[in-house]
Amino acid sequence: MTITSTILGLLAAALFAAAAALQHRVTRAVAQARGDTAGHWLPVLGTVARLLSSPVWLAGLGCNVLGFVAHASALHTGSIAIVQALLAVQLMFALPMAYTRTGRPPTARDWLGTAAVCAGLIVLVLARGGVEQTVRREPLPAVLLAAIVLIGVLLTLARSRLGRSARTALTGVAAGTGFSTTAVLTVVVADQLATRGPLTAALDWPVYALGLSGLVAAVLAQEAFGSGSLPAALTAMTVADPVLSWLWGALLFDEAPPAGLAALWTLTLAGAAIAAGVALLAYSPTLRVGAEGRPAAADPAPSPVEG
């Protein structure tokens, strides 16, 4: 894990945080104007034209594109497990954004969540940062099939008559699964570009799978944003993505997979600290107010298009 990949990973997290903040507000407003669509498959697809007409939503899309470039560069130079875990800090970047919007300073809970995420990342880097990386493609079809099945199961459950928070969380986990497979395919395609050239990469199937995976993950993220609160959606995505990325990465890219009880316990504790910190930050009153805006008397609700 190089300093360059760490910086690029943090830059990607900042850009993704800005994108989520911009797009959630617009997507949620459009979804509320559309009415209850519980039981429908991906109702966000019916709002694409309105989303594309919003300058705020398009600004978020621009942040997402720049974030992907930084993210892909980080994945090419570092470990997928650590780069994906670095994305958890996007909630930390969301704190100053919320403060700028509302003037509400971070609370003790925010600092505790930040400390937990940082501690988990430090342990993860110390435990796995020096592991050599390779690219093994043989298990790749099985990994993609497992991800497709998991997304299908999650969306089927989300389509049932569950509460709004459960639907948002399930869709967020599905989006996180999509982002984890996108990260895997980014590593494979970047390695092929570097070792065999763009023509060979363009003629091989992973580059097309990468485009499809990225599109699916983006649609699922917008569906999660439209179905409920930003904290619920971001928590699910931010926890599912690094957990599954660690699993896929251990199968495909780690030259020396973790072995022994001590290594597994270390990684478990690191993951638990990151997940706990993410939960504390995502459900912080600071971020909730920042996502929802000021009370109506001080900040009228945005129009569905202008955000």
From TrEMBL:
InterPro entries: EmrE-like. It comes from Catellatospora citrea. Residues 1-19 form the signal peptide. The keyword Acyltransferase does not apply. The chain crosses the membrane at residues 80-99, 111-128, 140-158, 170-190, 202-221, 233-253, 259-283. Keywords: Membrane, Signal, Transmembrane, Transmembrane helix. This is Magnesium transporter NIPA.
